[in-house]
Design brief:
There is one protein chain. With 422 residues, this protein is mainly β. The chain folds into four domains: 25 residues; 105 residues, TolB, N-terminal domain (Rossmann fold), CATH 3.40.50; 67 residues; 180 residues, Porin, CATH 2.40.160. Helix content is 14%, strand content 50%. The chain contains four helices and 17 strands. The strands form two sheets. A twelve-stranded antiparallel β-sheet has the order 6-7-8-9-10-11-12-13-14-15-16-17, with no helix packed on it. Strands 2-1-3-4-5 form a five-stranded mixed β-sheet, with helices on one face. About 7% of the residues have low confidence.
């Protein structure tokens, strides 16, 4: 009888230990009163810095374990900077607390200034959740007041640049070995003007790539040169419409283009208001125009130069929600002189949470290509094929990757330890 009682006690203790471990593993709270937060961040956002600067909450590995789900995305505005959209979504007793904050990071910011800026914004966003939690009694709020003056000297001066931001860039790299060497050079200018009413870009650019290989018969040289000028002007018309125009100049040895010059007006309709684009968007756009093309070599259509007219329709959708991120679209294009000269592209990206801990990742694109009017006449040499000096004709292009990931273990994922990070 004593043995049975002893076995019973051992079973109770064992069951209690296992139960405690499972409770921790599957996200049930264990008496810790700290607010639990799940960070759902895009690339190039420093999550380690956020955890280090905001240690007063508990960071968990799955949204199902969290009191607050933070979705944060970065939206570049050309060379002027970037806007960070930060959505706070409450669960459980915080389910009615949902809102969004934004942080603007000008291009003049250092990376440290930018990460400190959006981290301070996250602190502000977490304050209402903290105030509603059991930790409210330990909160202290400080405010750096700015003196209010009416001195004319302190009023904002008129912008002498009229919202224009310019970025000049240039660079290159080289390598050299006994039997091969390479040189890559790039340079250009971004000139952007972005307001709530319109977006404008002017961008000249140039790229030069040279590769040399030593063979038994001597050196073989491969040179690829491309560049051009991109430009657009887009005007907002209310919450759902936008119109604009594009003007592009392009030249490329690889694409057999001595010069191409295109101009095309465009119009777009957004199903959701543009203000919601950080979380969801479905758009339909139409673009049509004309282009002049001058070729390095005579094409398979016996053309050395020509003027072509065409149009394109673009449908796209983008959703960034607690259940994951989906971006997909369909592009259709054709020339007016021959409807058989066309192209269709379907692309998709998905990152979906199926169940707690299990996620599906997919990225893919498929193109049907029947508009390669610049393909040069004649056969390519083996050297041109291997060194990819000329574009080859193809009727399709397909690429993609797919993966599954499953995460389990401790519910907490907030420790930042940089030691021996080689």
């Amino acid at each position: 009888m004593a043995r049975i009682k002893l076995l019973y006690v051992i079973c109770l203790v064992f069951t209690g230990l296992i139960g405690g471990m499972l409770t921790d593993a599957y996200g049930q709270r264990t008496g810790n009163s700290r607010l639990s937060v799940f960070l759902d961040l895009q690339r190039f956002i420093d999550d380690d810095f956020i955890r280090q600067e905001i240690p007063l909450v508990e960071y968990v590995r799955e949204r199902e374990m969290a009191d607050v789900h933070i979705i944060m995305s970065r939206h570049a505005a050309g060379s002027t900077g970037a806007t960070y959209s930060i959505s706070f979504i409450g669960y459980g007793s915080y389910k009615d607390m949902n809102y969004e904050l934004t942080y603007w990071a000008p291009a003049s910011n250092t990376s440290d200034e930018t990460r400190r800026g959006y981290t301070e914004k996250i602190k502000s966003g977490l304050a209402p959740f903290m105030a509603a939690s059991s930790a409210a009694g330990r909160m202290r709020i400080t405010y750096d007041a700015v003196p209010i003056t009416i001195d004319d000297d302190e009023l904002p001066a008129e912008d002498p640049w009229n919202y224009w931001v310019l970025e000049v860039y240039g660079g290159g790299n080289f390598s050299r070995e006994e039997t091969r060497n390479s040189l890559h050079i790039r340079y250009g200018i971004f000139a952007d003007r972005i307001t709530t009413e319109a977006r404008t870009r002017l961008r000249p650019y140039n790229n030069y790539n040279e590769r040399n290989f030593k063979t038994d018969d001597g050196w073989v040289t491969s040179v690829a040169h491309r560049g051009g000028f991109d430009s657009y002007h887009i005007v907002s018309i209310g919450d759902h419409w936008a119109v604009g125009g594009f003007g592009d100049i392009y030249f490329s040895t690889f694409d057999n283009l001595r010069l191409s010059a295109e101009i095309s007006p465009a119009i777009e309709y957004s199903l959701y208001p543009y203000q919601e684009a950080t979380r969801r968007s479905i758009t339909l756009a139409w673009r049509a125009g004309a282009g002049y093309y001058n070729y390095h070599e005579e094409t398979i259509f016996d053309k050395e130069e020509e003027i072509l007219f065409g149009q394109a329709v673009i449908a796209s959708a983008n959703f960034r929600q607690p259940w994951g991120n989906v971006r997909a679209g369909l592009i259709g294009f054709h020339h007016f002189h021959d409807f058989r000269s066309n192209r269709a592209e379907l692309f998709a990206f998905m990152n979906l949470r199926i169940v707690e801990g299990l996620s599906l990742n997919f990225r893919g694109s498929f193109e049907l290509i029947n508009d390669q009017v610049a393909i040069p006449k004649g056969d390519l040499s083996l050297e041109e094929i291997l060194l990819e000096q000329r574009r080859r004709a193809t009727s399709y292009q397909f690429s993609g990757n797919v993966g599954l990931s499953y995460t389990f273990g401790s519910r907490i994922t907030g420790v930042f330890n940089p030691r021996l990070s080689l």
